[in-house]
Each structure stands twice: as C-alpha cells, then as structure tokens.
Automatic annotation (TrEMBL):
It comes from Thermoanaerobacter thermohydrosulfuricus. InterPro entries: P-loop_NTPase, Shikimate/glucono_kinase, Shikimate_kinase/TSH1, Shikimate_kinase_CS. Binds 1 Mg(2+) ion per subunit. Its main location: cytoplasm. PANTHER family: SHIKIMATE KINASE, SHIKIMATE KINASE 1, CHLOROPLASTIC. This is Shikimate kinase.
Amino acid sequence: MKNIVLTGFMATGKTTVGKKVATNMSFGFIDTDKMIEKMANMTVSDIFEKYGEDYFRRLEKAAVIKAARLKNFVIATGGGVVLNPSNIVQLRKNGVVICFTARPEIILRNIGKNKDRPLLMVDNPEEKIRQLLREREPFYRFADYTIDVSDMTIDEVAEEVIKAYIRLKKG
C-alpha cells in the first residue's frame, strides 16, 4: 500500500485530517514538523528564530527522506515542504500526494491567535498569507490531487482524501 502524503499551506488541516484518515484506513500517522522538532529538540518556531529558515529546510529534507521510507502511513507535511522539489520526488516514490488549499481568510481564521507560525509574525498576516500562497502555488500543482477545504468539515475532507487515494493508487 502506498502512503498518503498531505501537502498544502499551513493551517489547512493536514495534521487533523491526517490523523482521522490514518485511523479510518488503519494506517500509521506521522507529521514531518513533529519529526523535525524531535530531531532538533526544539519547536519549529524556536528553530526559525535561532537558526533561520534555511536550517529548518535542511532538517525538513532529512525528515522527508525518513518519512518517505515508511509503508502504510499518512504523512502530514509542513506548508513549505513543496519548496524543495526533491522532497516531492521522495514522497512520491511510495506515496500519493494530496494537496489541501483554502482561501486566505479561512487560513487566517484557522490560525487564530496561534503564535507558532514564524512566517506569519508580521504586521499584516493575511497579506503575508496571500503572498506565500502566490509564491507556492506553482509548487502545489505537483500534487496528484487537490482539495479546496475552505467550506468542508474535517470528516468531509477525510472522506474526500480516502476516495481520492483509492482512485489514484489504482492508476
């Protein structure tokens, strides 16, 4: 069985939905950001603050290589994992890549007062979301399937992921 790889912008529900899909499919679940935190023994925010984004992306690449070797897992990735094309190549070797999208205002609502989003620690987070979405959009196109989660419940997204996975793994 191939892995189910969830990509997409931050706060689109990759971890929450991923856990639900893993339970429903009797798959394991892993979150690459949690792997990175374990490797560095610090939070993603602390890594960004202390060492910068480049260092974080190197750790992310190592986490992706480890995660891609797993079998029968749902892998939730960080929002910027797609910025390194080799990450997607790795994840695709044994996985179906499904990308979550959402409107900027939905993303901002989902983030709420969460201070663990280092890229959004700016004066106008919604504008920063729009900018990052524009920059990353070409990278998100490499997914095997895309779901706009803006107006969907967690259960609806999980169901859509499972349906897409079943269709895609046959092909």
